[in-house]
Design a protein that fits this description.
- This protein is about 0% helix and about 50% strand.
- It is built from one helix and 23 strands.
- By secondary structure, the protein is mainly β.
Length: about 375
Amino acid sequence: MNEERNISAWDEFPVHQTSEFIRHAATSDRNFYDRYYFNLHPSSDDYFAIFGLGQYPNLGTTDAFLAVTKDGTQRVMRTSKPLVERSDVSVGPFRIEIDKPLEKLRVIVEPNEADVAMDVTWTASIPAFEEPRQYLRSRGTVVFDTQRFAQMGRWEGTLNVAGEDITVDPSHCGGSRDRSWGVRPVGEKQPDGIRQSISVMPGMWNYMPVDFGDHSIIYMCHERADGVRPLEEAVRVWQDPARLPDWLGRPSWEHDMISGTRLLSGSRITFPDAPEGPFTMQVRPLLTNFISIGTGYGFEDDWRHGMWQGEEEVVQALTYNVDDIRGLAQYGVVDSVGEFRYNDQTGYGLYEHGFFGPFPPMNLHDRGDVHP
C-alpha cells in the first residue's frame, strides 16, 4: 500500500466539493489552512485562555496551542504532528470533540509540561454568523483569501493552571470562537522577493466580538494607512434565531494608545447607522494575552502555524513573564478580554487590535514607530 494514502474517513461522507479526495484542498497553494480559534474568560481580569487547532494539507502538518495568561505569567502549550487523517481533530494532548455542529463542542487538553490543561464544553449563545470574505493581493500574489464564521458562547468545565483547578462556570465564563479556512501566510517564511518591504496586511486591524446577553455585536475593521478599508463589519446578532441581525452601518473608531507603545488603553467605536439611531460602544481592556508570542502567529522562526516539526509528534512548553514579552508582542496581534458598554448595556468579549507598519492616524509613521 502507498505510504501516502489519499483516501480517508471523510471520503465516506457526501461532503466532496471537487474531484479530489477530501485529503486534498482544491488549491495547491502551500498556504491553504483550516483552523479553529477559541477564547475563554470569566468576564474579568482573573485569567484569559486562548486556544486553537489548525490543519495545513499542502504542508502535511497539523498543530494546536493553548495559551493562558494569569497572575502576570503567560503559559503556552504547543504541539504539532504530521497530518494524515483530516477527520482526526487532535494533536498531542489537545483534541476537539464536536458534540453538535454549530451548537456544542468540547475541548480537552490533557495534563502536560506547560502546567496548563482543561476539559471544557462550549455551548453557542447566538447562531453562527458568516463574516465577510477577506481577499488581499500583494504585488500580484494572493496573500489572503479566507472565509470565516464567528460565534459567541458560554463555557463550562475545568481549567487547570499551575496545579490550580479553576471551575469554569457558564454563568460568568464566556468567549468567542471562529472557524476560518482558505489562504493566508503559514509555515516556514517564504523569500520576500519583491514584497520584502511590504506587510501582507498593512495598517490597522480591529476585531471585537462582544456578548451582551440577548445579543452580540461583531465589529471588525482592516484600515490601511491611506484610509482604504479592505474589510469592515458592524452587526448585531440576536440570541433568538428568528430575529434577523441588525446591520449597524459603517463604523468609526477612536483609540487611546499608550505612549511609547502600540498598545491600546481604550476605544470608542461608533455605529452611526444603527436602526435605533447612532450609538457609541465604550471599550476598556481587562487582561491581555500576547498570542503573537509562542503560539505560532508569527514571531518565532522555529515555530509558525503549519511549520514542519518532523515525523514524530512534538509537544513543547513555554513560560513567559508578561512584562518581558510586551515590547515585542505589541508589533503583532494583541488579544485582550474587554469590557464593553453602550447605552444601558454592559458586555464582555474579545478586544483585539494590531498596527502593522506605518499608520499615520495613530502617529505611527514608520514600521518600528511607537506612539509618542
